[in-house]
Amino acid sequence: MNLLALEKVVIDKSSQEIFDYVSNMENFSGWFTGVVHIASLNELSHGAKGKTYLETVKIPFKGNSKVKITVVESQSPTTFITEGTLSPIKPRMEIAIRETSGGNEVIWAMYSRNNSFLFKRLMLPLVRSEMSKRAKRSVKRLKEKLGG
Fold this sequence. Notes:
Pfam families: Polyketide_cyc2 (PF10604). It comes from Ketobacter alkanivorans. There is one protein chain. By secondary structure, this protein is α+β, with helices and mostly antiparallel strands. It is 26% helix and 43% strand. The protein is built from two helices and seven strands; from the N terminus they run βαββββββα. It has helices spanning 15-22, 117-146, and strands at residues 2-11, 35-40, 52-59, 63-75, 79-84, 91-100, 103-112. Strands 1-7-6-5-4-3-2 form a seven-stranded antiparallel β-sheet. The termini are far apart.
């Protein structure tokens, strides 16, 4: 996997409150830059492994694209991982929540599951740059949304 972006923020809320908010992906468009809309595709509970969503995301120079997102790992209140179908990026989002003396640290990371030589040479630098910009703004918005 290829790291696209990693950001950390400390939020003065319980790990369970943070987990409940971030694991409900219907909240994602409210705090993550570039996500236009997201809706559940199945009846599983938010945060449940196997939960699926349809995300509409802004892609530079392309416009909006629809991406199926699946929760692949979820351990309340510490770990939440999704994978998306957006080609050629094949995104994987990982959120870890760790207790600190000043609250809870949220570690947000996005990876690409595409390991092809051409992707790494041609697209990875551009995708990494765009995702890093979005991530910086987004973790700040997450903290503001949660009031911590």
